[in-house]
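User: Let's play a game. I give you a shape written as C-alpha cells, and you guess the letters that built it. Ready? Here's round one.
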C-alpha cells in the first residue's frame, strides 16, 4: 500500500471500494472535494420528484379539491424550503454530515439519540419505495409484487454503494424522465376533459383538513430534509447549498405533488382515495416502447428516492460507529428489503404521522442553536451532552403529539418546530452541568 502524504494515512489498493470515491463518513468534506452546484442540485432535484409524491398529491386533491389542495401543497413546500434551506446553509459552510452537525448542539454522546433515531426511521422510506416499486410493476406488467420489490431492492442497494456520484447521476436521469412521462400520462388521462375543468375539480373526499394536508407535505420529507447535511455538505458554500435545496423545495416536490393532483382532477386515477395520483397505469397498453419507459421510470424514479434514504441511513450509522458507509449500506439495505417484503411499507400513513411529530423538532433545535443564537452559542466548548437540546426536542415532539390528537386541523410539524425552538431559547440560558466551568460562566453572563 502507498501513502497519501497530504492526509498522512494509507491509500487502499486499486480494485477496492475506495475506487468508488471517498464519502467522508467520519470527517467534514474538505474544500478540495466539494462538488459543483449542478452536481449537488441534481442530488436534491431528483429526490422528491417521484411517483410516491404523486400518490400523496392525488390523495390531497381528492379530499380538498384541486385549488385548495394545491394551496396546501405550495404552503407545505414553503415551510420545507425554510426548514431544509437553513439546515443546508449550515452544512454548506462546515462540510459536516448530519451526525457531525447535530453533535455540536446535542453533545458528543447526546447526539446518539436523535442521530440513531433518524438513521433508523429513514430506512422505512427506503422500504416503502421498494414496496411501491413492486406494486407499480404488478399493475403495469402483472409481475408478482415481491418479484418487483426484490428486483428494485437489489438495484437500489447497488446504487447506494456507489455513493454520492450515483445519486447525482440518477437525479439527472430520473427528473426529465418523470417530467416527460408525467406529461404523456396527463395527456392520456385528460381525454375529453379540459384543464379548466381540472382546476375547478372539487374532491368528493372529506377525510382530510387543510392542516392535515400540509402535514403530509412536510412530513414526507421531514426525515431526509432534516438530514440534508448528508447531501449539501458537498456544496462549495452555504449559499450554494441553499440553492441546491431550493431545487427540491419548493420546485421539484411541488411538481410531483401537483402532477398527482392533476391526474386525479382529470379523472385519470384508479381509486384515488387510496391510490392517489399514481399515473403508471396510464402509460401502459400503448405499445412496447412506452411500457418499457414506464418500467424504466419505476426503477430510476423510485430508485432515486430509495437510494437517497439508504444513503442517509448508512452515512448516519457510519458516523456513529467505526464502520464505513458502503458495508453499512449493504447491511441496512438487506434489512429494509426484508421489511418491504414483509409488507411493512403498506402502513405509510402511520409512518407519516410518526415523522411529522418526532422529526421536525430536531431540526428546529439545530436551527435555533446554530443559526438564530449563533453569537451566543458559537464560542462554547464541546460537551458530552446538552440537556437543553434533548429537552427541547422532547417538548416539541410532545406538543406535536398533543396537537395531532386534540387539534387535528393544525399542522403538527409546525407546532413541533415552534415549541421546540422557543423551548430551546429559554432552556439554553440555564447553565449546563456537563459543560466546562468556563462555558457555564459564559452562559450565566449571557443570561
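Assistant: Ready! My guess for every position:
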Amino acid at each position: 500500500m502507498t501513502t497519501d502524504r497530504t492526509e498522512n494515512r494509507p491509500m487502499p489498493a486499486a480494485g477496492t471500494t475506495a475506487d468508488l470515491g471517498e464519502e467522508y463518513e467520519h470527517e467534514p468534506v474538505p474544500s478540495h472535494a466539494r462538488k459543483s452546484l449542478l452536481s449537488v442540485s441534481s442530488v436534491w432535484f431528483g429526490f422528491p420528484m417521484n411517483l410516491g409524491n404523486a400518490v400523496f398529491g392525488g390523495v390531497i386533491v381528492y379530499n380538498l379539491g384541486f385549488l385548495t389542495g394545491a394551496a396546501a401543497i405550495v404552503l407545505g413546500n414553503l415551510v420545507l424550503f425554510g426548514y431544509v434551506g437553513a439546515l443546508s446553509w449550515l452544512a454548506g459552510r462546515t462540510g459536516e454530515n448530519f451526525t457531525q452537525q447535530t453533535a455540536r448542539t446535542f453533545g458528543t454522546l447526546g447526539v446518539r439519540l436523535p442521530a440513531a433515531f433518524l438513521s433508523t426511521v429513514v430506512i422505512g422510506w427506503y422500504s416503502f419505495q421498494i414496496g411501491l416499486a413492486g406494486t407499480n410493476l404488478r399493475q403495469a406488467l402483472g409481475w408478482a409484487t415481491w418479484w418487483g420489490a426484490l428486483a428494485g431492492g437489489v438495484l437500489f442497494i447497488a446504487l447506494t454503494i456507489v455513493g454520492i456520484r450515483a445519486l447525482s447521476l440518477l437525479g439527472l436521469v430520473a427528473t426529465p424522465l418523470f417530467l416527460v412521462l408525467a406529461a404523456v400520462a396527463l395527456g392520456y388521462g385528460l381525454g375529453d376533459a379540459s384543464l379548466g375543468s381540472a382546476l375547478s375539480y372539487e374532491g368528493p373526499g372529506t377525510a382530510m383538513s387543510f392542516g392535515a394536508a400540509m402535514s403530509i407535505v412536510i412530513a414526507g420529507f421531514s426525515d431526509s430534509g432534516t438530514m440534508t447535511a448528508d447531501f449539501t455538505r458537498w456544496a462549495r458554500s452555504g449559499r450554494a447549498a441553499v440553492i441546491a435545496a431550493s431545487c427540491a423545495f419548493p420546485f421539484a416536490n411541488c411538481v410531483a405533488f401537483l402532477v398527482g393532483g392533476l391526474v386525479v382532477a382529470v379523472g385519470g386515477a384508479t381509486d384515488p382515495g387510496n391510490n392517489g395520483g399514481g399515473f403508471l397505469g396510464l402509460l401502459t397498453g400503448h405499445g412496447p416502447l412506452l411500457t418499457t419507459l414506464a418500467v424504466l421510470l419505476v426503477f430510476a424514479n423510485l430508485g432515486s428516492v430509495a437510494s437517497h434514504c439508504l444513503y442517509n441511513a448508512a452515512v448516519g450509522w457510519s458516523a456513529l460507529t467505526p464502520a464505513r458507509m458502503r458495508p453499512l449500506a449493504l447491511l441496512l439495505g438487506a434489512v429494509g428489503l426484508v421489511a418491504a417484503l414483509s409488507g411493512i411499507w403498506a402502513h405509510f400513513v402511520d409512518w407519516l404521522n410518526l415523522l411529522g411529530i418526532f422529526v421536525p423538532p430536531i431540526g428546529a433545535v439545530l436551527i435555533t442553536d446554530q443559526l438564530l443564537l449563533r453569537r451566543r452559542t458559537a464560542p462554547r466548548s464541546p460537551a458530552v451532552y446538552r440537556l437543553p437540546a434533548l429537552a427541547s426536542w422532547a417538548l416539541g415532539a410532545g406538543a406535536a403529539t398533543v396537537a395531532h390528537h386534540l387539534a387535528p386541523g393544525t399542522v403538527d410539524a409546525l407546532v413541533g418546530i415552534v415549541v421546540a425552538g422557543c423551548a430551546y431559547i429559554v432552556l439554553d440560558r440555564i447553565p449546563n452541568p456537563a459543560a466546562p466551568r468556563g462555558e457555564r460562566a459564559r452562559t450565566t453572563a449571557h443570561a
